[in-house]
Design a protein that fits this description.
With 390 residues, this protein is an alpha/beta fold. It is built from nine helices and 18 strands. Strands 1-4-7-10-13-16 form a six-stranded parallel sheet, with no helix packed on it. Strands 2-5-8-11-14 form a five-stranded parallel sheet, with no helix packed on it. The chain has a five-stranded parallel sheet with strand order 3-6-9-12-15, with no helix packed on it. Helix 2 crosses helix 3, helix 3 packs across helix 6 and helix 3 packs across helix 9.
Amino acid sequence: MKWLLPRLLVTVGLLSAFGPIVRAQDWQDERDRARAAELERRADEREQRREAEDTRREERRQQREGRRRTKAHIVIGRDYVLPAGSSVDESILVVGGTTTIEGHVGDDVAVFGGNVSINGEIQDDLFVAGGHVRLGPKAVIHGDVTTFGGGLERDAAARVDGDVNTAHLGWPRWAPDDWGFPSLNIGRYWWSGAALAFTVGRFFLILFLSILAVMAAPRLIHNIAARLVSAPGVSALVGFGIEIFSAPAIAIVVIALIITIVGIVLLAAIPFFIAAFALLWIAGYAAVAALLGARLRGADWYVHGLRPVDVVLGSFMLSGVTLFGQFLTLGPEWMLPFAAMMKGTGWFVEYVAWTFALGAAVTAWMQRNGWDGNMVPPPLPTPTPAPSAM
């Protein structure tokens, strides 16, 4: 019994000393277990996100593959009807026929030259050119609706998830003006389309004549280009002067020939003179365009000559801004100021090119054989001597 109390005291002391250490160890183990559980949870979340992303990628890939495998349903010269309860997955293209859709279309619908009646569902876009569009109360368009050259009749219950774009192209008609007199009312798109057609036609006509000049008279084009490179300032001044004084000079000559009896016979030569002058001017333009094209290709035109491909590249550089600006006039009205700015810039570029072309062509033609011996050709690169073998 005498040792019981000391032993009890020793036991209590040992427990008091090592108890906090044991509790601290238990707390550390609990923290480790909680951290491991948190890391495992995060790893599981990352794995789930990765699997979900892989699933979405696979779905998108299957959709793309399905779209690539899907063939468009094309109808030309007859009507197309998709009755209620029917469904198609491919795109629908109708040319020259009336289209009626009351079922489900899994892709887009395009109609050219025909009226369209929609009282079903279209999964993608609807595009109609040259026809009237009617959207019934059961119409559901998940994409955009675009009409050109026709009207759009939309029921209040019709649903369009995307944008609705309409461009009406009315036929020219006679209508009284502000003074009550009958006049031909032509819409803006007709004027813009006619101007675009004229601009494109003018461009290709000048391009054809320029290519013909380069192929038929390469020496003349080469001499005009050399004149333009050696004396650009003189070419610009001469061309501007001719543009200013050519019309009054021709008028004075015509009047003088009419007054004189002998000169009346010479009037028949005036159209031929004007035609020759126009051809010389086109040759100058061909030289300007060919120079720009050769510079764009990085070719040495003075050694290898000017080629038709240079004329094509240079012509697109000179007239591209005008063509683009004229094309923009077919867009909505908010684009008209930008289109006018583009057209003005393009006209200025073309005017400068034609002015340089006229001056270079006339000054080169006035020299003997179209060539001035005092002109300095572009410097050729100095050849590097080969190192001597030792």
